[in-house]
Fold this sequence. Notes:
Elements: E1 2-3, H1 11-21, H2 30-43, E2 47-51, H3 54-64, E3 72-75, H4 82-88, E4 93-96, H5 108-114, E5 119-125, H6 134-141, E6 147-151, E7 159-160, E8 163-164, E9 171-175, E10 188-192, H7 195-204, E11 209-210, E12 227-228, H8 239-249, H9 252-270, E13 276-277, E14 285-286, E15 292-296, H10 301-310, E16 313-314, H11 326-329, H12 339-347, E17 348-351, H13 359-373
Parallel strand pairs: 1-16, 3-4, 3-5, 5-6, 6-9
Antiparallel strand pairs: 2-10, 7-8, 7-14, 9-10, 11-12, 13-15, 15-17
Helix pairs in contact: 1-8, 2-8, 3-4, 3-7, 5-6, 9-13
Amino acid sequence: MLPYGRHSVSSDDVAAVVEVLGSDWLTTGPWVSAFEQQLAKLAGAPGAVSVTSGTAALHTAYAALGVGPGDEVVVTPLTFVATASSATILGANVVFADVTADTGNLDPDSVAAALTERTRVVGAVDYGGHPIDAPGLRAAIRGTKVILLEDAAHSIGGTLNGLPVGSLADVTTFSFFPTKNLTTAEGGAVVSADADVLARAATFRNIGMVKDPLRMRSPRDEAWWYEVQDIGVNYRLPDVLASLGLSQLARLEAFSRRRREIHDRYSAGLGDLDALLLPPTRPGANPTWHLYSLRIRDGRRKQLFDHLRASGIGVQVNYIPVYWHPLYADLGYRRGMCPVAEEYYEQEISLPLFPDLTDADVDGVIELVRGFIRE
């Protein structure tokens, strides 16, 4: 079965991990610090806080922003559930706004209509790797105290109008799951230009421990002394995994280039079929593609999915609208709330996309899709 996504691990990656295994540090050591520094540089941010997953990154970011009961967080339904559930777990009320029909990203007009005096954060996702409409979303929240959070789990290494993903929003989160654009096996990170947010994020992911005397309520002169002032969790990324991430960062540009080549090859091979909608690239965007989100307009998405799976092609569907899940249905959310996102879901199928995919693999997928459409 040809998977829809797959990690790419080289001998250099293996050597990097082995080096850490032979060192005095397996966690909370120098490789974590180096990885965070390189991430911040790539993202155009002054700092980064690494964590154990993309979900942990979202949880940490919302916590660092002070999200809690009584707050509203506006998010897209066309995403993995963690974009919403990480706010729900903190007691916030999630409000779903619709997406644009072309990119599947949050629609600024829908966001503007969803804002209330209780809105604390707008959580926008770089769907498939295409950067959010940051200027449009900024305009939607202008004149408010609402914070823009970019869930960039799909898009590290991308840019919009020459600015790197990581500098487009007030806070950005990344995921380093194996199918993502670079991997630490499991892992994630939070980046921000706000030093206070980064400090709170670092404290939250470290069980809430405060060791800086300047931040303590009752500083002492014992070297072992620390305080826990608020609830925190253990989301510390180990050095073993950070070393893999550091090695992967050195190849991110090559990964991104190959992903764009594959994306373009699919579009060239399928662009003449009227039954299909292809993922666009808006002016000014330079995505690092995580997904090739093909859409079929004639209602045969399931049949195409089954056809490709039966042919050994591990296609996927991204994503079931978040409020369709029982978790949110039980809270009173109903289908039909975001019709554009729901139509996108009903049509979408993700074709295989990862750096080690060969041109022959891509062409084989194209031929299978074309053969199905012509039936």
